[in-house]
């Protein structure tokens, strides 16, 4: 599909974006800022030909004007724009002219919906898929198989570690060897809470309250503090990198709600911090609070994520960075899009 759409030495790459919240708008903002650079550097003219959100869509075969879409979405006045329709994803997917579906609707680790429906419909219509949606944990291998059978790309860098290029690094830089195990901090909110308890002596409740006030905790804080988010990410990591076929229910999970300030202070006295660690050796998948030496590369503070790969030839390799955020995570979505556009 993409090959037929050359314009001189420039290749048009048409994107249908589903979900126009933090990630969707972040993606549009990055495109507005970097479109010219992508044309010059990669010969890719990236166009948003469709945007759908819960209540409507915005469609234009020529490419949606980005500044207008961002402005209207931010002001929630999109309905007034001439390109706005009240059609849903189901109406738009059959007719939108797009090479790649970017799926950024809310995560649902029980049913996987609406994300899984969107991704499967895109594969049925011959579109590549890039997603930030952790709902893929529900049916990970089936999605990978569907894409392979159809000869399509399926990329999900932003689902784990936000902007940190975990899967790209694994695919491009560790081909020479096996990864034996993975462990790390996969949720920035819990890490922020544990850091405030360690550094400022806050109780768990006060640190959680602070995280809520900063807007970094989910409305339902259980998702973070009970390790649900870390668990979904650990399963995606393990399945993608260690080749396992695990599901959410296979993980032994314990959150941080019972970590007392006294426990943290006792650990500190002996040169340790407590961190919520997800780890998989391919057989056992566990998310639980663990003692980490203060000198360990995994002992990162605040909202940072850190991931340690135990490898066959390189010993351990640790990668650290911002595990969430609109622009940070959308940068990973954009990298996936460029990587598909550059190869197709
Ligand atoms: N935010 C982050 O830092 C981050 C990082 C990594 C991964 N993620 C993941 O990325 C995804 C998006 O996150 P977000 O923070 O952007 O979420 P968000 O701000 O809540 O935005 C979700 C968007 O999805 C739309 N939507 C909901 N149901 C829909 C449906 N049935 N059809 C079409 N659109 C629908 C919403 O529409 P309305 O605008 O009409 O409500 C909204 O635009 C989530 O799965 C999240 O877990 C987020």
Short description:
The protein is α/β, with parallel strands linked by helices and 344 residues long.
Number of strands: 14
Radius of gyration: 21 Å
Helix content: 25-40%
| Overall spatial form | globular
Within the CATH hierarchy, at the fold level, what is the topology of the largest domain?
Rossmann fold
| Terminal residue distance | 9 Å
Write out the distinct hetero groups bound to the structure: NADP nicotinamide-adenine-dinucleotide phosphate
Largest sheet: 8 strands, mixed
Average pLDDT taken over every residue: 93
Describe the structure.
By secondary structure, the protein is of the alpha/beta class. Helix content is 38%, strand content 23%. It has helices at residues 22-42, 66-75, 89-92, 115-124, 140-150, 166-173, 188-200, 204-213, 222-225, 228-241, 261-269, 326-343, and strands at 6-7, 10-18, 44-53, 56-59, 84-85, 100-103, 128-131, 154-155, 179-185, 252-253, 272-280, 285-293, 304-311, 316-322. The strands form 2 sheets. Strands 1, 2, 3, 4, 5, 6, 7 and 8 form an 8-stranded mixed sheet that branches. β2, α1 (22-42) and β3 form a beta-alpha-beta unit. α1 packs antiparallel against α2 (66-75) and α7 (188-200) crosses α8 (204-213). The protein is globular, with a radius of gyration of 21 Å. The relative contact order is 0.15. NADP nicotinamide-adenine-dinucleotide phosphate (NAP) is lined by residues 18-24, 52-55, 89, 104-107, 114, 132-134, 158, 162, 324-326, 329. NADP nicotinamide-adenine-dinucleotide phosphate (NAP) binds at residues 18-24, 52-55, 89, 104-107, 114, 132-134, 158, 162, 324-326, 329.
